[in-house]
Fold this sequence. Notes:
Elements: H1 8-21, H2 41-44, H3 51-56, E1 58-62, H4 77-83, H5 87-96, H6 117-126, E2 131-137, H7 164-175, E3 179-185, H8 192-199, H9 206-223, E4 227-231, H10 238-241, H11 243-252, E5 261-262, E6 294-299, H12 319-331, E7 334-340, H13 350-366, E8 387-392, E9 397-402, E10 410-413, E11 424-427, E12 435-438, E13 444-447, E14 462-467
Parallel strand pairs: 1-2, 1-7, 2-3, 3-4, 4-5, 6-7
Antiparallel strand pairs: 8-9, 9-14, 10-13, 11-14, 12-13
Helix pairs in contact: 1-9, 4-5, 6-7, 6-13
Amino acid sequence: MRSSEQPQLARRRLALPLLLLLPALLPRCRATSTQRYDPTWESLDSRPLPAWFDRAKFGIFIHWGVFSVPSFGSEWFWWYWLKEKRSKFVDFMKDNYPPGFKYEDFGPLFTAYFFNASQWADILQASGAKYVVLTTKHHEGFTLWGSEYSWNWNAVDEGPKRDIVKELAVAIRNRTDLRFGLYYSLFEWFHPLFLEDESSSFKMRQFPVSKMLPELYELVNKYKPEVLWSDGDGGAPDHYWNSTGFLAWLYNESPVRNIVVTNDRWGAGSICKHGGYYTCSDRYNPGHLLPHKWENCMTIDKFSWGYRREAGIGDYLTIEELVKQLVETVACGGNLLMNFGPTLDGTISAVFEERLRQMGTWLKVNGEGIYETRTWRSQNDTITPDVWYTSKPEKKVVYAIFFKWPISGKLFLDQPIASLGATEVKLLGHGQPLTWISSGSNGITVELPQLNFHQMPCRWGWTLTLSNVT
């Protein structure tokens, strides 16, 4: 779409017919499970979370769209420039683009020229992640697939002239063991129908009926995501979006009804309260155990979800910081969803690729203490700092992941209670059993192996396996 005003009349004319045709958009299939869910939060929240999600522990988030063209400041570039008129965004446009340049003019510049889905898939596989979530449409409204309801404001009609979602879905499913997920923003900042609905205090529902709901059904039926990551309620309640009605269809009738997981961003007031798992807020890391499954969605770039050309090396989290985020999150029962933003031409910048591969290198050694683990009775050590615990009760194993190798070579853990003749302690990546001394009911002291730099199993945190401890 060349401007946000041009399609306004056409969209109004389409709203009523689409409302009448909406049932025809649903596939004519029935859930194989006898469990049916009603379109109420009480019923929907009773659905067990598919087990694969908790076992996965680690996923990759990808924010890519037209905002990757200015690639300045934030993926909220359009809003900050046009709506809030923040000076640094206004000055950026004055200094770099001619007068009269509109945000829509960035569309043709979003080329994805070097986008290679197979290459992306290989890098994602190397990261050690178990699922990936691609941003299919952010708040700017540009879809990365040729949606029938986006007019020409999509990647098939504008810019790349390619179905990005399909290409990545095929590559992920053909080349990796990752689960494929999709992010979708419910609202759009400047869509005329949403703005009209907003002006009516959301008594009118033109936008969800003619745009948002048809696109969601289209995404699920066409690409069959195993994660559906909703976002951006625009201040509208869930009944405006018909979130419960859509989720009832997703859980009862959709082609992914038995495996799909969803988050908690389905309308104002639903976050950290309703949905399959909770995100609560961006970069959420409570540091303690929660009673409900949750996810820490966070960014390698400390300040933005999308790629920023002006980012300095200090703006990126180090691999040590990222590994610590993963360990703390898993120890407290969460999953980590680590985000990067590609460039406008589809390149994964060197710093992002390095962090992804470094995480994969660490997980090759320490993944046993992350994947398919459960929380332990203590999430972290109360005496020795930077020690976090996970467990596999069925194997009678507790994992102690620590980030500071003691100069003395002796690591004191105050939480495990060991048994002589039964407890065995090993260092992942080393193999040989380690000597330990019991402190009675007050933990154990482990004598770590004397290793030089090149003998260390990894560089950014180490994992002890403690068998038969209480």
